[in-house]
Design goal:
Two copies of one chain form a homodimer.
Chain A (H helix, E strand, L loop, with lengths): L4 H11 L3 E2 L3 E2 L1 H12 L5 E6 L3 H8 L2 H4 L2 E8 L8 E2 L2 E5 L3 H7 L4 E4 L6 H10 L4 E4 L12 E4 L2 H13 L5
Parallel strand pairs in A: 3-4, 3-7, 4-6, 7-8, 8-9
Antiparallel strand pairs in A: 1-2, 5-6
Chain A binds a DNA duplex through helix 1, strand 1 and strand 2.
DNA sequence: TAGATTGTTAATCGATTAACAATC
DNA sequence: TAGATTGTTAATCGATTAACAATC
């Protein structure tokens, strides 16, 4: 992974000692422990907001659930999409979100909507009590202090790649 | 964007001076200049390897081309996918890649294949002369020194979000 | 000229790496 | 006990922030 042994030990020790001097680490229990730290043993319910091709692709992705991240609903505003089925989920209208939240625990909202709706929808869902956003919209969301945002900015990543390609620089 | 004015000036000055003291920056020409640095005015031809839902979603994404990143072909190995149309592109068999490369300039390969094929396919395409990989496979690719890799590790990002959520920490 | 803002140097901060003592 | 490897302290490195002189 391009990481030094020093860094590995340094990082592990932030969370406590997991190894046995002289013998090394027990891979099985270390793996388990890291999973605990990351909270992989608890199930997180996620909703997808924006049922475009990216939103649909994420809904179909199977790897997330294996790590405890479960998609429980998909929302959009386009009437032609409402009712359509993606995997086992019918696309719901965003207007039904407040009602949905009353009856379901939602831990994370995945934002895969067009750029121009980004701020508006982010404000809407945080007002409804969403505390974590996985943001695929290429903008910096301004959210209340207690809301956690994790960004996936695809175009930024691609531009970094383009820059490195132009300047022939690795990573 | 949560960046200090110091950092902005520091970063700009790495590439030269673009501002006028006392007056500030001319946004239009600065924007143009940053585009030049990132190479946004040159067109990059990209191919998608792996026509699953994620690969298809990226093919349909319109924002990349606006920044000069153009998808010119999609490859897979699943026979039932070959010939199927995604936007204007027919899905081609990966075996036809060498022939395709003889007749087309490819700057970037987008890897959206299952994890277990990651290393094998990366080795295959770098051997064929691909110099840049936008890697969506959740592994660290080992590639020759002159190959540029930019990773999008979705599950890592999601786990970071999960961690921050558990420990109630912002960004 | 006076003043606002850039460009640049210096200080600070945090993360990575190195060194080494603790210990199983 | 001897030696290998962890855990931790110290050194290094790079990036961010602060300070300020240059200048339009």
């Amino acid at each position: 992974m391009g990481i030094t042994s020093s860094q590995v030990r340094q990082d592990f020790s932030s969370f406590g000692g997991y190894g046995l001097q002289r013998y090394g680490y027990d891979v099985e229990s270390l793996h388990q422990e890291i999973g605990n730290i990351l909270g992989l043993n608890t199930i997180r319910n996620m909703i997808i907001i924006g049922a475009g091709s990216l939103g649909q692709a994420l809904a179909k992705h199977k790897e997330f659930e294996k790590k405890g991240f479960k998609v429980i609903a998909i929302f959009d505003v386009k009437t032609e999409l409402i009712g359509q089925k993606i995997t086992e989920h019918e696309i719901r209208h965003l207007d039904s979100l407040p009602h949905f939240l009353e009856n379901n625990q939602v831990d994370i909202a995945i934002l895969t909507i067009p750029e121009n709706f980004g701020r508006e929808v982010a404000a809407y869902i945080t007002e409804l009590g969403i505390k974590a956003i996985w943001n695929f919209v290429p903008i910096e969301l301004k959210t209340p202090d207690d809301v956690i945002v994790e960004n996936i900015h695809l175009i930024d990543s691609l531009m970094v790649l383009g820059y490195n390609l132009k300047h022939k620089r690795r990573e």
